[in-house]
């Protein structure tokens, strides 16, 4: 085979490889917000999980995600990376079974925030969310997710910005937000937005769920929508409430389901404890 044919075949291979792992650019961000997220996963043991998600805001679209989750998902986009990921997970499970320390499992698998959330995509009034249950991915789109905020007189300083208080009821929870009018971005973490300034902090009554900003900077980073066929090979489109019901069932029985799927006893022969888990949206 001559060198010219080899080059052509190599180009064809690279084109298909690039397409297979493509990221669709849907907007360009002009501001990047970093948050500290805390979640009280078990209301009895008071077990708190955390993460450091990013909000990228563009002129048309915003993206909210966990860099930790994205990093792990990116690793799994290639066969070698996927194999390495499974080997590391297997080793982490052995350590957990021997010591009861699940830090390596948590660090390896993904961030506490496992979903990718897009506001303004594919249409301007649409929110798109992609989440996972075990090794399967689910996606839903919704409109009418905006909050009805009641402004309050209280103020406080966050990250050097004077913030005003606002409150709302949203899908079964009472939320308190602090927004900065000095940052004219009507957006915030998760599904929050609609205030005359960036939401710097928001939490529910009891602080079972809380987002607090810890970084803010200008950026020209691309906002991408993942289209990877290897990673999302089992992607299924569902309705929001159906997804939340499936997620609730999985998270309350996560170890038992994982054991049934993998054949690995995550509880090492002990009776699995069901989490007293209360989902962020209660209207399912």
* Rg over alpha carbons: 21 Å
Protein structure class: alpha+beta
Secondary-structure element sequence?
HEEEEHHHEEEEEEEEEEHH
The count of β-strands is: 14
What is the name of the CATH topology of one domain? outer membrane lipoprotein receptor (LolB), chain A
Architecture of one domain, according to CATH?
A: Clam
CATH superfamily of one domain: Lipoprotein localisation LolA/LolB/LppX
> Can you tell me the residue ranges where pLDDT is under 50 for at least 5 consecutive residues?
1-21
Strand percentage, roughly?
35-45%
Give the proportion of residues in helices. Answer: 25-40%
Distance between the termini: 61 Å
Task: Give the overall form.
Answer: globular
Keywords: Signal
Protein name: GLPGLI family protein
InterPro entries: GLPGLI
Organism: Prevotella corporis
